[in-house]
Amino acid sequence: MTDGMAGAFSGLFRRRGRTAPHGDELARVEAEITAFGEALAGHPFRPDHQAHGSRLLADHQRALDAYERAKRDFAGDRTLRDAADVLRALDEGRHALACVDAAVAGRPRPHRLPLCFFDPRHGPSAQEVRWAPAGGAARTVAVCAADAVRLAEGRAPIESGLRERTPDPRAASRTKRRPAHEPAPPASAGDPYGTCPLPAGTRQRRENRGSAEVQLSRTDRRAPALLVVHLERADGSWADLTGPAGAGGQRRQLLTHGSVLTRAVVPVPADGRDTIHLSLHTRRGWRIWLHPMEDIPLLTGEVSSTGTYVLRHPGGREPLRVTQHEGSAFSLHALRSDFRPGELLC
Asked: 295: which DSSP letter?
């Protein structure tokens, strides 16, 4: 991250209530959370839905959400993995607040570098390298400068147990159990399109119950948009995109009657109009929004999803392994800059 707000964190973060050094380390984590909360409370920005654009409001809300997530992740007994979640949440919040500062000052949005893959306490990554876990396939990961040097010299990265774990194939058939102290995540945990990142009240999001004809306002009529549609129930429900129309001037079916899918992620090209129109048919709840472009997930590891999905590739040549369920259809397209389908990749 180029805004200089992310710092390296030192010390080991383990469970509460053990040795005094570990208590000190936890206190430093808590101090980071407190400091970010104070930065939010003392920040001069005050959201105004009439005066401020949707992206600025979304960035401010993203900072608030990251603070709440850091506090929530820190609560209860600690593990190394919990500490990593806290640090990554704080990093996201700092970047969001830096985006608010940049927008208010009329500066470009700061670029966000991911924290080191092997340990978020190492700070922002410096470069991408090829790395393979023991017995696993090689992949591209973003690492800090120190780990990049170690890997280039043929040494192992600085290991702390904080990096992403490689799934154990022997455990695939076993029932997954969570420790009693660890709450189960919400259904949308880890899904970039599970919850709307925009603040309530903006014209780029709507939610309600029952059938309706609705519209969302584009932030720029000349730019494409990414539409996300969630239906509470698949049975007896469907959703159509009525404007802009699809090929031949026909409405586009996003979620069809009789399908088991309840979510669609749909690229919508620009058509020179200020609004996008949908027709929703359901007796249950629904949520729709225009997803911020900067929040489109980056393909840096493994992606699992059902239905349509849009992601960004970091660039370069990478092997892509696709596993699909028997009987399901699959295709992968490149998207042009106007969000129209490009080359069929597979």
From this structure: G
Q: Find the mean pLDDT for residues 175-201.
A: 54
Beta strands in 282-337, from DSSP E residues, in sequence order: 285-290, 333-335
Q: How far is the C-alpha of 215 from the C-alpha of 213, rounded, in Å?
A: 7
Structure tokens at 221: 């009529």
Q: What is the CA radius of gyration of the chain?
A: 22
Specify the pTM: 0.48
Residue-level pLDDT at 173: 34
Which CATH class, in words, describes the domain spanning 205-344?
A: mainly beta
Q: How far apart are CA 51 and CA 166, in angstroms?
A: 47
Q: In 3-state terms, what secondary structure has residue 81? A: helix
Which residue in this structure is represented by tokens 């939010």? 40
CA distances from 10 to 38, 95, 122, 227 (A): 21, 20, 8, 41
Enumerate residues 6+ apart whose C-beta is below 8 A from 216: 203, 204, 205, 206, 227, 275, 276, 278, 288, 289, 290
CA neighbor of 274 nearest in space, from 339, 223, 214, 221: 221
Residue 325 in tokens = 């369920």
Sign, CA dihedral 259-293-123-195, equals: negative
Q: Are 29 and 74 in contact (CB under 8 A)?
A: yes
Domain with CATH 2.60.120 in the chain: 205-344
